[in-house]
Write a structure and sequence with these properties.
347 residues; 29% helix; Dihydrodipicolinate Reductase, domain 2; 7-stranded parallel β-sheet; binds NADP nicotinamide-adenine-dinucleotide phosphate
Length: 347
């Protein structure tokens, strides 16, 4: 049986880590790679991944050129965070009859911020008989899917609180930049105003996904302003020499209002040196308190969840899907991915 053929769209930190992981998986073959970064285009994927051998796959900036030469079943998409920006990229992939798993945060539950684009994507995916899923560790798992799974043992729920605390020194450079590590307070405030610092994207999507799973009538999501975490003393963290008063990272909160009452509160903190944990509290019957310590590593977890969903997406119904619509998430340690090709929906 032929392998599951994968195209990597966006060979950055996450797309690259997924590609590296997939190159080692039996039954999967990477048949193409796309990126617009001029320093990557034309180079062998192996060179960009720094794995010490050539893969024979040249990075191209043009998906049409890649797919007119190569066969693919699925695209792993990891470029940017807003659906409006990635929408044309996802459409291109679907028009080539590719299933898509994307790390785009807004795609994890697009109905809250981009309902029209979501509906267009759903129609397009159904027309081409493929499935589209936005997922990752957060949004995609910790602050939504895991919470939803825990609610399955509750008879009554009054309020849900989730706190994720991440030590940013253990995360990738693009993540550290996104949270303003090393900036002065003035630079930070300017970057927030100009939206060069967006902080964590996805709190709104996670709240909406939880509310939808519980059939709660979500009236409003209040996303609070991003707060800087400031260093009280000079500290060294790897390559960073942080002065007193400089930014170590951020704190962010979002609140979901149901029947006029705060019913879901998500809090995300990411800063250098933070003591890490993920905590989910469900006030209800029964009362549930779950703590994962240290928190699930975002990059490792994202590579895993994207890869583990390949078999599930190949056999899922066509259309735009979210994590709450899919079978129970799990790791996949089958001998090969090939067996899932036979489960593929008929085109
Ligand atoms: N849901 C989750 O849990 C989760 C987890 C991890 C990451 N993410 C998200 O996934 C995305 C990728 O993360 P990352 O850290 O890998 O980012 P990154 O290192 O910046 O990599 C993105 C790559 O995609 C390229 N790119 C941008 N626009 C493109 C386009 N139109 N066509 C082809 N390639 C394009 C970029 O090139 P240039 O550098 O030239 O722009 C870059 O090489 C981010 O939005 C991140 O926030 C989500």
């Amino acid at each position: 049986m032929s392998p599951v053929n994968v195209v990597i769209y966006g060979v950055g930190e996450i797309g690259g880590a997924i590609a590296k992981f997939l190159l080692e998986k039996p039954g999967v073959s990477i048949t193409g790679a796309v990126d617009i970064d001029k320093s990557k285009v034309g180079k062998d994927l192996g060179e960009i991944l720094n794995i010490g051998y050539k893969t024979g796959i040249k990075i191209s900036s043009n998906i049409d050129a890649v797919l007119s030469d190569a066969k693919a079943d699925i695209a792993i998409h990891a470029t940017t965070s807003y659906l409006r920006d990635v929408y044309p990229q996802i459409c291109e992939l679907v028009k080539w009859n590719l299933n898509v798993i994307s790390t785009c945060e807004e795609l994890s539950y697009p109905y809250i911020s981009e309902p029209e684009l979501a509906s267009k994507l759903d129609k397009l995916a159904k027309k081409h008989s493929v499935a589209i899923l936005g997922t990752g560790i957060n949004p995609g798992f910790i602050m939504d899917t895991l919470v939803i799974a825990l609610t399955s043992v509750c008879q009554k729920i009054d309020k849900i609180n989730v706190v994720r605390v991440v030590d940013a020194s253990k995360r990738r450079l693009s993540f550290q930049r996104k949270i303003g590590v090393g900036l002065t307070l003035k630079e930070f405030e300017r970057a927030v105003t100009s939206q060069n610092i967006t902080g964590h994207i996805g709190l709104k999507q996670s709240i909406a996904m939880i509310a939808s799973a519980l059939s709660w009538n979500l009236q409003e999501v209040q996303v609070k302003p991003i707060e800087p975490v400031i260093s009280a003393t000079p500290i060294e963290f790897g390559d960073y020499q942080i002065l007193r008063g400089q930014v170590l990272g951020i704190k962010q909160q979002a609140i979901g209002v149901i029947n006029g009452k705060e019913s879901i509160r998500l809090e995300f903190q990411a800063y250098l040196g933070a003591e890490e944990y993920d905590a989910i509290t469900i006030h209800g019957v029964p009362e549930l308190r779950q703590k994962i310590q240290p928190c699930i590593h975002g990059d490792i977890g994202t590579v895993a969840i994207i890869t583990n969903f390949i078999p599930k997406i190949l056999s899922a119904p066509a259309g735009l899907l979210t994590m709450k619509d899919l079978p129970l998430p799990s790791a996949f340690f089958g001998e090969t991915f090939r067996q899932f090709k036979s489960l593929k929906r008929k085109r």
